[in-house]
Write a structure and sequence with these properties.
two-stranded antiparallel ribbon, single chain, 144 residues, 2 domains
Length: 144
């Protein structure tokens, strides 16, 4: 915050409510936080005020998705929301999966993974049988 860096809070909705409550002061116009946990006698150093260049970014999946909760309306209103739809186009899925293999040689399996997923979706009659997230998780479990 002091240096004006960017802080990314990934999956913010998984944070404890006590943590989320502490973020409110950082998102107020004064843009500061008091770290009482630091202890000591120098109270001035317990308060951190954000540099004008400081940015706070957060990601989350919709509430209810994999048991996730919603943010409180008060906290949610402090962010600009950008909804990103699920990646469904095969070409897009292919690019993401192919770039995420640990070893380049495994890229030859990308089309096989997508072919199987397409076959499975047709077999069960459900196009959302495996999302891109599911493919990446299973791919990581098999080939990492």
């Amino acid at each position: 915050m002091r240096a004006g860096d960017i802080l990314l809070l990934d999956e913010i909705s998984l944070a404890d409510d006590s943590v989320l409550e502490r973020l409110n002061s950082v998102l107020e116009p004064a843009r500061n936080i008091v770290l009482a946990e630091r202890g000591g006698f120098d109270v001035d150093h317990a308060q951190i005020t954000a540099n004008p260049g400081f940015k706070l970014l957060a990601t989350m999946n919709p509430g209810g998705d994999y048991g996730k909760k919603e943010l409180s309306p008060a906290l949610r209103n402090r962010f600009t929301e950008i909804w990103v739809p699920q990646v469904e186009a095969r070409l897009d899925q292919r690019m993401v999966i192919e770039k995420s293999w640990r070893y380049d040689i495994l890229g030859t399996f990308t089309d096989r993974v997508l072919d199987f997923t397409e076959w499975l979706a047709n077999a069960v009659g459900e196009t959302s049988v495996a999302s891109l997230r599911d493919l990446l998780v299973s791919r990581n479990a098999l080939y990492s």
